[in-house]
Amino acid sequence: MDNKPDVFRRELVDVQGIPLFWSIAEHWAQVASFEAQPDDLLISTYPKSGTTWISEILDLIYNNGDAEKCQRDAIYKRVPFMELIIPGFSNGVEQLKNMPSPRLMKTHLPVQLLPSSFWKYNCKMIYMARNAKDVAVSYYYFHQMAKMHPEPGTWEEFLDKFVAGKVSFGSWYDHVKGWWEKRKDYRILYLFYEDMKEDPKSEIQKLLQFLEKDLSEEAVNKILYHSSFNVMKQNPHANYTTLTKEEMDHSVSPFMRKGISGDWKNQFTVAQYERFEKDYEEKMKNSTLKFRSEI
C-alpha cells in the first residue's frame, strides 16, 4: 500500500491522558459508543500479557476443544480487537457488529476508557496480567516488529518510556491496578500469566467454572495441547503470520517469541533492574496486587 507512512510508525495520541494509536484516537467516538451485548465475553489485558494465548484458550473452550473449528480463521478475526481501528486495514467495532452471539472479543484499554455498555450489561470479563519486567521486554521486541507502534529506540530508551507510561495503552501499573480494583464490583475473573504457565490445567478449570461450562477431561486435554506455546507458535491461525510484512515483520522478531517467565533476566542490566525495582515498589506500594517475576 502506498499510504504506509500515513498509517505506520506514527506518534501516539492521548485520549483522556492515555497514549493510544493515532487511528484509535481519531475514531474514538466510534469506540466509546460501542454497544456491548449481555452475553459478550471480554478479554482484557495490558499488551504482551498473554492476550493471544488466553484468546486461543477461550475460543477452544467456546468450541468444546474442537481444534478444527478454531482453524476457521486467524485469531484476530475469531477474537476481534474491539478498539483497533486502522484505516484500510481493520475496524474492530465494525467486525464485531457482524459477529454472531455469543461474541468473544479483546481489549487493551485501561478500565476507565472501557465503553460504558460493558458495565451497563455487567458482561463477564477475563483479565490476564503478567509481571512488569517480562511485559517490558516483550513489548520492546513487539515494537520492533509491529509497525503500528512508534519506533522503540534503544532498550534503555524504551524502558524509560515504559516506566513513565509513555507507550500505547499507557501505564502498566495503572492498568493492572485499575482492573484489579474493578473486579470487586463486576464479573471479572483476574488471572496471572505466571499461574497459567505453571499450571495451565487448573487455570482452565477456573475459566470453565467462571463461564459455567462443563467439559470432558478429553476436551480439556485437547485445549491444553492446542493452546501450548509450541503448538500455537506453529499454528498460522494463532501466530499472526497471516498479516502482511508491512503490518508485522516476523523476520525482525517473531510475534510469538519465547512465551516464558523470567526472560527479563536476559535483558535488564543490574543498574536497570535496581532502578526499575525502586520505582516499582513506589508505584505498587498501596496495592494488594502481587506478581511473581519468575516461576
Explain this structure to me?
Homodimer. It is found in: Cytoplasm. Its EC number is 2.8.2.-. The protein has 295 residues and is of the alpha/beta class. It has one domain (14-284): 3-Layer(aba) Sandwich (Rossmann fold). It is built from 15 helices and 8 strands. It has helices at residues 4-7, 22-26, 28-32, 51-62, 75-78, 92-97, 117-120, 132-145, 155-164, 172-182, 193-198, 200-210, 217-226, 229-234, 270-284, and strands spanning 13-15, 18-20, 41-45, 85-86, 90-91, 104-107, 124-129, 188-192. The strands form 3 sheets. Strands 6-3-7-8 form a 4-stranded parallel beta sheet, with helices on both faces. Strands 1-2 form a two-stranded antiparallel sheet. A hairpin with a 2-residue loop joins strand 1 and strand 2 (18-20). Helix 4 packs antiparallel against helix 13. The chain starts with a helix and ends in an 11-residue tail after the last helix. 36% of the residues are buried.
